[in-house]
Amino acid sequence: MRYKILLLVIFITIFNAQAQSPLFKAGRNASILVSENENPVVQTATEILQKDFRSVFGSSLSKSTGSGAEIIAGTLGVSDKISRLTDSHVIETNGIKGKWETYMIKAFKEKNKYKLVVIGSDSRGTAYGLLEISRMLGVSPWEWWADATPSKKISFTPPVQTIIRSPTVQYRGIFLNDEDWGLLPWSSKNYEPEGKLKDGIEAASLKEKSVIGPKTYARIFELLLRLRANTIWPAMHEVTVPFYFVDGTKEAADKYGIILGTSHCEPMMRNSASEWDAAGTGRYNYVTNKDAVISYWADRLKELKGSENIFTIGMRGKHDGQMEGVKNNAEYKEQLSQIIPQQQNLIEQYISKDPAKVPQIFVPYKEVLDVYRSGLAVPAHVTLVWPDDNYGYIRHFPDQAEKARPGGNGVYYHLSYWGRPHDYLWLGTADPALELQQMKMAYEKGVQKIWIANVGDIKPIEYQTELFLDMAWNIGAVKDIPSHLRNFLTREFGQQNAQELGRIMQEHYRLALICKPEYLGNSRTYDAAKAMVSDLPWTEGEIRSRMIEYEQLSKSVEKVSAKIGPDRKNAFFELIAYPVEAAAQMNFKMLNGQLARHGKAEWQLSEKAYDSIGVLTQRYNDLVGGKWHGMMDHRPRKLPVFEPLARSTDSSKMLSKAQPLYRWTASDASAKSVKKVAGLGYTGKAALVIKNEPLKFIFTLSNADAIEVDVRLLPTHAINGKNLRFTLSLDGHTSQEVNYETEEQSEEWKNNVLRNQAVRTFKFKCTPTSKHVLMLTALDEGVVLDELLLFKK
């Protein structure tokens, strides 16, 4: 028996030693076997891997037709070579068979030679598996989009363990939006000025629009494949020629295996913001122009039979506005109740005899949510895609009936936004910890069918985009922001820099959560009374403390920058230095300006900071020989906050505030009935309060007759019903109950999303004892506590 065990140990040791010998070496060519029968996305992924291989090893990975290839890749049911391996039981594929976009990577021995096999359950699964090898080689998904030049390797040894991966969310993708000041001018004037309309597309309404062409979209689709995404809502603003009017864009999507969808206001794959004026007749009004609208939708569907699409149903206005021809929610509901069945008929007529088998979504965005909640019937096979409130707080979570629908549930989440109460289009400061908390909550509540993130121009939202898609691919693998961010930074800038850069970026995001760079003018968009720059509600001490924090961040960035090698200098500027330094200079510009108005700083400090922002932005656009010229605009929409401040004088006193006697976070409570989210909130210690499990805050206070307590929470939305309530009591006496759920576009909601806090103030009389207990109890699920401040009155 011991002899058999010894032989087994020797065999395993030899196998492991052999399996761990290098498969690839620098300067040595290798080959890959991929059947010509594979779908275009597999061929495309192979080409990407070949390119990466040359970048890493300086040698070629050629396609092979023989048996000597180091890599064998194929899809179940498509590749003859894979079929032979599985039929002979050399490779066992039960773990991936019949699954969606699943891949397996395994090292095995064939004819005394170790090889790597990549098998996909379907074509995209195979493509993701091939690009997983690129990741193993150290190639960043952002190698082109952030100029993260691949590092050279001497050799590569594949893992011994079999790797099987599959997505936790079926449809995962991005929405290109608000492209007016970045993606569109960069693509149409710099990267791809040759982009053109399809033959036969002629309309006067298109002459002033610019083109995002197939070369640009191919780069975007490659990025999506590298990030294991599969879906896109193309750019659709009025300044852009519609996707389906551009020569070669649909073909590029097919080549990269990307599923095409459209946003909440683009039903039936029609970008009505621009297409209606070019291809429609009369008003885009279903009530008064029904036949023309139906014909317009039908014309697009006729083009798409056999294509991979996700069809948006319902109807809004031509762009981001309410549907024409209805005066109230009752009329809106009545019309949608006719429109949706009509759209099912069109899908049945032109796409599939069984519309239930065609991917479809209904997005209750803005005013449509109220219409849906009034009882609108949506076919059970249609996925309900729940939006956030444009500022990162999801407005609706599915109830039990919605969870049970065959179509399932999805989410549309903003990492960038143009609109009320203020845009944030510039520096990509959507808070990663909030993003994680909201998306994990959504997944737990059954939102698992489709995830779409509004990523603006993609740059500079690289990290938050990858975080979003990583969670969509494997929700359980993303534990917290510190570890995920550290892994991202290790890959991009090396382990030796990752810890310090993680600290820098988390502080950058925390400060932006308190006030985004775009909000520093204390102004609002589409609000004449608050259109111009005014003082922020901060004391002189708060302003100076914040500037010190940014000065320290800037110095930290400079120190790390000196350690970055030349091959990653551009990536460092794009991913770290520009967003942090530009945010710092924006703070110096606006906050020194506020102090200068009150005679407490020199105006030159604000003006110098304004000039620095321009210099930083010019440097960004000039990187890599002008590669990004036109991409970065530090004055999107030319809002007042971005302009140089006019010198003025304010003789009024600056704001003063009482200092709290106690300042707690949720983590400071004596009862630990919280679900912590690392890095969340003003202090980085905000936490989800467990329903009906009190938090106790014990303090001592003598010679005080009364206290005032500020409860500061994240302005999340109700999970069940319409209430988001908690109670606060002192020393077990009668508790005070509040409901802090808000209506979108209310004044309270606007204040909440601009400061990322909902604030409730309580007043209590005190008994003459030294020890006291404040007790906070969440009455509803979803209460996220940031801070408690106690003041003596």
**Total strand segments:** 26
Cα gyration radius (Å): 28 Å
Under CATH, the topology of the largest domain can be stated as TIM Barrel
Largest sheet: 8 strands, parallel
Query: What level of helicity do the residues show?
Result: 25-40%
**What's the name of the CATH homologous superfamily of the largest domain?**
Glycosyl hydrolase family 115
Could you name the ranges where pLDDT drops below 50 across 5 or more consecutive residues?
1-19
Structural class: alpha/beta
Strand order across the biggest sheet?
11-10-9-16-15-14-13-12
Mean pLDDT: 95
Separate helix tally: 20
Total of domains:
4
Q: Which overall shape is indicated by the principal axes computed on the Cα atoms?
A: globular
Q: What CATH first level of the largest domain would be assigned?
A: Alpha Beta
CATH architecture of the largest domain: Alpha-Beta Barrel
- The fraction of residues assigned to DSSP E strands is 15-25%
Termini distance? Answer: 81 Å
